[in-house]
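S.,

Sequence below, as promised.
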Amino acid sequence: MKVRFAIFSLLVCLIPSVQAQRPAGARPPATVRSPEVAPDRTVTFRLRAPAATEVTLTGEFMKGSKPLQKDADGVWSVTVGPLAPEIYNYNFTIDGVRSIDPGNPNVKTGSTASTIASILEVPGAGPAFYDAHRVPHGEIRTHWYESKSLKMTRRLTVYTPPGYDRNRSTRYPVLYLLHGANADERAWTTLGRVNLILDNLLADSKIKPFVVVMPFGYGTPPGTPRAIRPSPLQYTVIDGGGRDQSVENRRASRPSTGFTDVVTEFSSDLLGDVIPFIDANYRVYSDRDHRAIAGLSMGGLESLEIGLNHLELFSYVAGFSAAVRPPEFQKAFASLTADPQSSNRKLHLLWIGCGTDDSLFPSSQAFTKFLEEAKVKYKFYSVPGAHTWIVWRQFLKEVAPQLF
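The prediction came back faster than expected:
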């Protein structure tokens, strides 16, 4: 928590000239409202920065950047839209420094500073599927546990459905839901709104109640530098950043994220510590028929590699915009394809989803082709969209009714 606050404070302090020095006795400047959503869903962004020379806006609601214009009072502004009802991330760039919007308290954070952004929510005519409806609500719980495999104290988040504490004799299926690169175990609640989506689906009788476990998907503490081995593909994905995420042909300019090492480290913690902790502390079924694993981006790779290589533990496996690597399919999924008939009998669901504008879309298509050639059954789902939470919330809504 201290690290997260320090990063946030540093970013705010880095905003150049946002607040100019006032002469003694001068009246404070009027409050700048940003962002301001108009009834027609156009949105105006503002920033008080009298000494700045250039301010631009980037966001998931547009391609590229858009310049802000400065008025006589030193307030920069720009209006965009109308925008479709959604939750978007955005940033200002002030004289070359990428920054959050100091007028907006809603901030997207993660395990690294690279994904910190401001959040814009554009409401529609009625509540969205990810909004809080007037229905019974489940609970979000935080646990600290000792990871013997990683030799450290770690944290995980758990969603329990409405009525969990009242129905003491009821046991529940369990979904292990994994975040993406640069995020943490709280991402699926703060950004994905998993609890509200599932509460609404439950109230509409579209799903059965189940527990969701969201662990931290790295083998190191948040913000810890780690050695990364070279990889055949150079992933430049920043989950939900709304920027270009080229997967190949970046060898000369960008380092690998070393997802192979991440999967290995995280797998030991998930299988050796997290699952036993949940089985011991929650009323969940411990058999494979009532256990699922799913994740997005890096977490999608983790869910596919761990789930499909441990069909004795999982019968439902899903990858959302998974950072899969075509050159490593044969090796990574050898146990899955060695006996496809047996794999198909064990798999109640293998679900692959990706946005059509995502740079990982070709990799997802290559993976489905690999599965077809291996005669492994799967479901593929795509929607227009990039590598963002806009897509992943839709995927959760789509796949949840197909579990258990």
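The two ends are 36 Å apart (CA to CA).

Coffee later?
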